[in-house]
Amino acid sequence: MANHTKQLLAESLKELLTHKPVDKITVKEIVAGCGVNRQTFYYNFHDIYDLMEWILLEDARQIIGTDTVCKDWVEAMSKVFKYLQDNEDRTLNAFHSMSRASLRNCIKSVFYPIMETILDSQPNAGRLSSENRKFLLDVYVLLLTGIVIEWIEGGMRGDYMFELNRLKRVIDCTATHLIDEFSMTI
Question: Which helix (H) or strand (E) holds 93?
């Protein structure tokens, strides 16, 4: 039941985001759009930005799928980019209204499992200490996060497949070397 209510609230906010930015939307408008009361909203979410973050994470899970083992991670990422582009009004309104820290954390939590799969599939990845594994994951996730943010800031006009293929080349060329290098450090 709680998930159904969250979905109702999410759909209401998504509809409102096609017309105006998050910072111009009120809880009253969201609950009016789905027929629940303010108390129900606050039972499920701390504020509108909490709901916004939940929407982004849920949508990403649906797009990518629940299986974090992505055989073709470039394809999984391209689905996310395409979704953002297909929902340009919502994406830009959310982007311009959310704090950069909130947005960055949200994007990182979407891409972390994918990058984790990529890193763990590399030869000798099991030799990394947990600290070095986390460091390398953070490097790659921040790299991808920066690419996503730059693309959105540019009005989502660039060829995201070109950027994803360049990122793939970077990972393909560096992952094994970095794993070997960081496996040797104590």
Answer: helix 88-97
- Tell me the per-residue pLDDT of 17-67, one tens digit each, with 9 for 90 and over: 998 888 899 999 999 999 999 999 999 999 998 998 899 888 888 887 755
Cβ atoms of 58 and 10 closer than 8 Å: yes
Tokens matching residue 54: 């939940």
Residue-range definition of the domain harbouring residue 83: 47-184
Instruction: Give domain status of residue 65, yes or no.
Output: yes
Q: Is residue 138 part of a domain?
A: yes
Residue 40 within any structural domain of the chain? no
pTM of the model: 0.78
Q: How many domains does the chain have?
A: 1
Q: At what angle do helices 2-17 and 48-64 cross, to 10 degrees?
A: 100
In this structure, are residues 85 and 35 in contact, taking their beta carbons and an 8 Å threshold? no
